[in-house]
Amino acid sequence: MKHLSIALVFLFAAASLAAGDIHGKVTAKGLRDSANAVVYVDAIAGKTFPAPADHAKMDQRNMEFTPKVLPILVGTTVNFHNSDAVLHNVFSPDACADRFDLGAWAQGEVKTNTFKKPCFAVLLCKVHSEMEGYVAVLPTPYHAVTAADGSYVIKDVPDGTYTVKVWHPKLKPAHKSVAVKGATQEDFEIAK
Amino acid sequence: MSDSKELHREPAVTALRTRRRSRSLIALTGTIVGAFGVIVLADVGSVKHPHVSAPVSPAVITPVQGLSNLERLGLSMDSSGMGRTGQWGPAPTGDPLPLASVTYSGNVAGPTTLSGADLYRLDCQPCHQADGGGAPPEINAIIGPVQATSAVVMFERMKTMGRPITPAFAVQLANGSRKDLMDRLKNGGKKMPSFGHLKDGEIRALTAYLELLAGVPGAAERQSVVTEPGLRVGELLVKGTCHICHNATGPWPDPEELLQGAVPPLGLLAKERAINDVIRKVRHGTPVVMGRARVSYRGRMPVFEYLKDDEVSAAYMYLLIYPPENAERP
Fold first, then answer.
1. Rounded to an integer, what distance in angstroms lies between the CA atom of residue B145 and that of residue A87?
2. Percentage of residues in chain B having pLDDT higher than 90
3. What pLDDT does B23 receive?
4. Residues 138-167 in B contacting A (C-alpha not used; CB under 8 Å)
5. Predicted ipTM?
6. pTM over 0.80
7. By the CB < 8 Å criterion, does A93 face chain B?
8. Segments of chain B assigned E as strands
9. Residues near A27 by Cβ (< 8 Å), separated by ≥ 6?
10. DSSP per residue over B104-119, as a string?
11. Is A107 part of the contact surface with chain B (CB cutoff 8 Å)?
């Protein structure tokens, strides 16, 4: 059974390698760096994606949400960790995230929340008002978050033409129609 | 604007209800105290021991039990700030304070009125400090968690952030935070001990004071008091402060062990030490003479200047009248 699983993983990986990717740079104008922009393939007509069984992870570490922005597919459950010695809380006032409040919990404990609708949900901590993070709940599993230099890679995107969107917590969103064939480069510029 | 008014109205209603409840609580505790009997302090030999008429124990007072909070957590006084985050107090300046200058009324049977600030001093201050700041990361500040229990604070905070929320969601957030706070008080946390022995009136007065510390709007109008038997004050002080470092029971350390920093058990305190000595040690510090050079050293116990002589006296009497189980009666 184990061997079969490994074989299936390899098969899946091989199939994925055959697909292309979308890569490039996002320039966040007016900001110190271009990190934390979410680049994603928008909803594809006639195509749905089952919610993954695996949970995503958002940590609270050194009084910050880590990662600052977590992109997930709609229906994904996020495990909220606390790596700090102090109590933390997570809540979101956003209606598209069903306005949740997960209570307070200590280091090493985990709380979960399932994000059921597409949303850019802000995450806040009632105990520490300076903390702010985001979960980007997206319609497809094809997404990436930019590094500080703005670079991104969306892996394993099947060839085709898609609307590719960019979202950033502080800047106006942008979008482009992108024809993917193998490795495809696409750059974006976003501003206030 | 009307949303804000709606939120402000609710605490006013709660405060009114609180005042009514406090009045009936005062009437009730007055009766309990009346049945409590009279406690007279008298000198017996070198150790001043109280003579106590048979007390009719109110059910709410129970002996302190078990390991100190530090020992329960496997921590040492050196590795933790618990119990000594506030005043270390001044170092002794030579001769110890003369015993005659330690004054206390000895009236621990009569009713005592405690404000929320008093309850905070007895139960919270040794770890969370006078200003509620705690000692992060080991000891959480209470300010953030208490501010989060206020719908007004959450509503205004979110508006300032440019993420306005409805009054209903502000109330939902505040209620969740209040539940978390109550849960923590009643059950404790990983490090914080349980304060499940606090009664509703005490919790009401205490949380109103926490709100005052945290700058919650309207907190000043919600302050309340509780009237308690004096021994309850002693119980609160022992369970909230002394028990952080002192085990309830165990053998009394020999002089050498005491010099090396052994922490004596609460159960034998009244047998081994006179009440004046205890008050002096707790409130002013008593130098410990160390080594052949006879260097005065205050010892490891913090000095709790912010306590009152009568409160320490009540703690002593409480330990005498309600000794921990398995402790030898003095």
1. 9
2. 52
3. 33
4. 138, 140, 144-145, 148, 154, 157-158, 163, 165
5. 0.80
6. no
7. yes
8. 39-44, 47-52, 111-115, 225-229, 288-290, 295-297
9. A34, A150, A187, A188, A189, A190
10. -----SSEEEEEHHHH
11. yes
